[in-house]
Design goal:
The structure is a single chain. This protein is mainly β. Helices cover about 0% and strands about 50% of the residues. Strands 2, 4, 5, 6, 9, 10 and 11 form a 7-stranded mixed β-sheet that branches. It has a 4-stranded antiparallel β-sheet with strand order 1-3-8-7, with no helix packed on it.
Length: about 120
C-alpha cells in the first residue's frame, strides 16, 4: 500500500516558479512509477509528467515540456515537480499518483494511488 501527500502549492505571478513535493510511504515506493496530474475547475484531470522508478525515463505533457521538470529521490520517498515560467493556464489542483505496474503513461486510470492534491494559482 502507498500513501501520497502533496505540498508546495501556492499563489505565484505569471513567469514565476514553484516546486511541488509529494511524500510517499510504503515499502515498495522505490519500485513505483510516479506521476503528476492537474485539474482546473470544470475541466478534466490532465496528465502533467511521470517518472519511472529508476528515474531514467520521464514523460511530459506537451503543454509543460521545457518548463516543468519531474524528479524523484527514492531515499527520501519523495517525487518533485519543478515548475518554471508559470502561466495562468497552469492554475489547477495538482495531484501526484503512483503506478505499481511501473508505467509512465498519460492516462490517469493507469495509476492506482493518489494524493489529495495541492492548489497552484498563477495570476496574470
Amino acid at each position: 500500500q502507498v500513501q501520497l501527500e502533496e505540498s508546495g502549492g501556492g499563489l505565484v505571478q505569471a513567469g514565476g516558479s514553484l516546486r511541488l513535493s509529494c511524500a510517499a510511504s510504503g515499502r515498495m515506493f522505490s519500485r513505483y512509477s510516479l506521476g503528476w496530474f492537474r485539474q482546473a475547475p470544470g475541466k478534466e484531470r490532465e496528465f502533467v509528467a511521470a517518472i519511472m522508478w529508476s528515474g531514467t525515463a520521464r514523460n511530459y505533457a506537451d503543454s509543460v515540456k521545457d518548463r516543468f521538470s519531474i524528479s524523484r529521490d527514492n531515499g527520501k520517498n519523495t517525487v518533485y515537480l519543478q515548475m518554471n515560467s508559470l502561466k495562468p493556464d497552469d492554475t489547477a489542483i495538482y495531484y501526484c499518483a503512483a503506478d505499481a505496474n511501473m508505467g509512465i503513461g498519460s492516462k490517469a486510470s493507469n495509476y492506482e494511488y493518489w494524493g489529495q492534491g495541492t492548489q497552484v494559482t498563477v495570476s496574470s
